[in-house]
Amino acid sequence: MLNSQDEFFKALMEIIKTKPAHEWPLSGGFACPPDFVCAMGHTGLGKSFKPSILYLKKIFVWSPEVLFDLHSPKDKMILCPNCNRHEDVRRNGWIDEPRQVVLEDDIGYAVCRRYDCNTCKIDFNGFTPGVLMQLPFVVSEYFPFIMTHKSGILKSLVRDLEDQSLNGVGMAGFRKSLMQKHLDKFHRSEMLYYATLKSLITLCEEGSPLVWNTVLRNAINAKNQFGSFGDPSRYNGFVPSESYFTKVWTEYFYERKVMKTESGVWVSRETMYHLANQQINGNILSGDASHKVLHYCF
User: Fold this and answer.
1) Which of 144, 165, 195 is the last residue in one of the domains?
2) How far is Cα 62 from Cα 66, in angstroms, rounded to an integer?
3) Rounded distance between C-alpha atoms, residue 116 and residue 197, angstroms
4) Nearest CA to 147 among 133, 160, 136?
5) Is residue 14 a part of any domain in this protein?
6) DSSP codes, 67-95
7) Is the pTM above the cut of 0.70?
8) Which domain holds residue 88?
9) Is residue 158 part of a domain?
10) 144, 170, 194: which is the final residue of a domain?
């Protein structure tokens, strides 16, 4: 039974490195931890009673050329973001440590391929914006995160941030609402743990042979059995700061290139909105002080 995030990650990578992509244990690109209740049922009631299963986080695996079976000459291999060629690009294992990412109600981790370009003598990973931009649109859209220097955040959360910004909710309000979702999942996991513990105590008092009394006794006598939300050795909950969301929003709206113009130039979302603004009748925009027309267009 997996008892830590490191063990979960190592077990997953062992499968990915030794088995073909169609056998990877992924759902929507994510490797999900085992279910707490089902895991106990498979290993004997009480034998594996420990909260560590509830601490495990999802891991997203990104290897686009494998997951999407890119066979056309242009898409045979990932393009080098420097020279825009694929002939001398080779896979070079995986990133050493998974990158922490912010999900809707928890944190998770993301891992991706590393690549070498013999022409440019550089190495890069599959998270690189220059790599994602050159992938077919349907492939790049499958990647669910906006990556920063050391972490990442779901695109859907950034779109929620955009919606709330249009409705006058600042970064502090957005962080508060996200923290509430994360705390809700933490407390539900905590309640599941203690409800299961109570059930095992009842079985033990009734003399059930299914319960391993020594394991149960150790669990009952343990102090701080489940741990706090932010305990890095246990649940390891985390919600980024307001400044982080500000940085993400700045990159998302003002810096990240999202559209290629007819002249072949990649432009930011801000520029895209300005270009769209020029195509809309002025009579329509005259009463749109909150810019909701462009928001619904994109």
Assistant:
1) 144
2) 9
3) 50
4) 133
5) yes
6) HTT--SSTTSSPPPTTT---TTEEEEEE-
7) yes
8) 5-144
9) no
10) 144
What burial letters (b/e) apply to 285-294, b meaning 16+ CB within 10 Å?
A: eeeeeeeeeb
Kindly state whether residues 140 and 264 are assigned to the same domain. no
113: in domain: yes
pLDDT of residue 46: 47
Task: HSE, CB side, 13 Å, CA atoms: give it for residue 278.
Answer: 5
Per the domain annotation, does 85 fall within a domain?
A: yes
C-alpha distances in Å from residue 270, one per residue of 54, 167, 174, 290: 41, 18, 21, 15
Domain count, the chain: 2
pLDDT > 70 fraction of the chain, expressed in percent and rounded = 69
pLDDT digits (tens, 9 = 90+) for 230-252: 998 889 999 999 999 988 888 87
Residue 1 — pLDDT band, cuts 50, 70, 90? Answer: very low
Question: Cα separation of 87 and 92, whole Å?
Answer: 15
What is the distance between the alpha carbons of residues 46 and 33, in angstroms, rounded to a whole number?
Answer: 19
In DSSP terms, which residues pair with 114 in a beta bridge? 125
